[in-house]
Amino acid sequence: MIDLDGRVVLVTGAGAGLGRAHALLLAKRGARVAVNDLSPDHAQSVVDEITEQGGRAMAAPASVADADDVQGMVDDIATQWGRIDGLVNNAGILRDKSFAKMPIEDFRLVMEVHVMGAVHCCRSVWPLMRDQGFGRIVMTTSSSGLYGNFGQSNYGAAKMALVGLMQTLSLEGARHDIRVNCIAPTAATQMLDGLLPQAELDHLRPEFVSPGVLHLLTPEAPNRTILCAGAGGFATANITLTEGSFVSTGPNAPEDLARLWPKVTDRSGESIPASGEAQGRQELAHAGYARRA
């Protein structure tokens, strides 16, 4: 049985919905949980739930979009409990509209909360995790970022940005046993109100996603994984690279590309590059250049 006794986990946006479900499960499995929410009352309500069930928790109200607010919150947690082992970047908002009708302020606000909110939290906990030689960070991405969703250009862009952040932090943190992954949840929260039939929402309870978050916080967690979760089912999503082909560097390269398009897009033999450098190495190899010793 997975036991997080002795671990300290910060969950952002945990006053309701997915964050609340994550916080309750983590506390039930022994973690001390810092419950963040923009609303102090909502954060305290979840803390009360946890303590009533015999768990340990503290309210950590703050705006993740405010770097100073986040640093103060992290300092308070470290003062109270001496460490932070896990961070679940869950806080988020929606401002849905078709791209042509969306005010730029709504685009910027969603990016600020989702992306910069995660950046602020990661930057504040990173030194603690590095010095401990242990850390687990979970970014909350979305199928709207991975695959798109009408009316959510701002949300989709923000959620895919978190995948890019995860990809790089997973490489930079590996030497310190800081593992960084993404969860892509489908859950019946306020964000899905009115978007799906009630019969479907009944199968998409937030607590069905939380076991995936728990797994990504364990010592045995993977690194650099996108875990999709909903209705009790789990899958992984990957950004792959086809084998491709050398096309041309000459004046007819556009026409050659069109002619070789089936080979360029053939997914048989596709791979998951270990880092961004791998794409360039593959392209050089196709062009006949080998890595110099």
Helices and strands in order:
Blueprint (H helix, E strand, L loop, with lengths): L7 E4 L5 H12 L3 E4 L4 H13 L3 E4 L7 H15 L4 E4 L14 H29 L2 E6 L2 H4 L6 H21 L4 E8 L12 H4 L8 H7 L9 E5 L2 E5 L15 H12 L11 H11 L7
Parallel strand pairs: 1-2, 1-4, 2-3, 4-5, 5-6, 6-7
Antiparallel strand pairs: 7-8
Helix pairs in contact: 1-8, 3-4, 4-6
Can you describe this structure?
- The chain is α/β, with parallel strands linked by helices.
- It folds into 2 domains: 8-237, NAD(P)-binding Rossmann-like Domain (Rossmann fold); 240-292.
- Helices cover 44% and strands 14% of the residues.
- It has 10 helices and 8 strands.
- The protein has helices at 17-28, 40-52, 67-81, 104-132, 143-146, 153-173, 198-201, 210-216, 253-264, 276-286, and strands spanning 8-11, 32-35, 56-59, 86-89, 135-140, 178-185, 226-230, 233-237.
- An 8-stranded mixed sheet has the order 3-2-1-4-5-6-7-8, with helices on both faces.
- Helix 1 (17-28) links the parallel strand 1 (8-11) and strand 2.
- The chain is globular and about 70 Å long.
- The chain starts with 7 loop residues before the first strand and ends in a 7-residue tail after the last helix.
- The mean pLDDT is 96.
- Residues 266-293 are annotated as: Disordered.
- Pfam families: adh_short (PF00106).
- Residues 7-186 form the Ketoreductase domain.
- It comes from Pseudooceanicola nitratireducens.
- Keywords: Oxidoreductase.
